[in-house]
Amino acid sequence: MRHVTGPLRFLALAALTAPALGDGVLCLERAYLGTCDTPGFARRVTLVDSIAYTADWYGGLSTIDVSDPNAPVLLGTYDVNYVFEVEVVDSIAYAACAHDGLHILDVSDPSLPVLIGEFDAGGEVRAVVVRGDMAFIAVDERGFKILDIADPAFPRLLGGHGYPAKDLDVADSTVYVVGGGSIWIYDASDPTAPTLVGESHAGNPWGVEVVADRVFAYEDWVIQVLDVSEPTSPIILGTYDAVDGVQSLAIEDTLVYIADTMDGSGVQVVDFADPANPMRLMRYGTAGAAKGVAVSGGLAHVADGDAGLQIIRLDPSHAEPWIGGSDTSGTRDMTTDQGTVYVIGPYVLEAFDTTGPDAPVLLGNWESDRELEGVTVYDGRAYLARGSYGLAILDVTDPQNMALLGEIDGPGFASGVAASGGTAYIANGGSQVNVLVVDVTDPVAPRLLSSCDLPGSTVAVATAGTLVFAAAGADGGLQIIDVSDPLVPLVVGAMDTTGAAADVAVFENTVVLADGSGGVLLVDVSDPVQPELRSAIDIQTSRIAPFWPRLLLSEDHDLKLFDLTIPDTAREVFSFDTGYRWLGEPALAGEVACILGTDGLQDLVLLDLSDCPPCPADFNADSEVDSRDVIAFLDAWVAERTQDCSSGGCATDLDDNGVVDSRDVVAFLNAWAAGC
Question: What are residue 271's DSSP bridge partners?
Answer without folding.
Answer: 255, 279
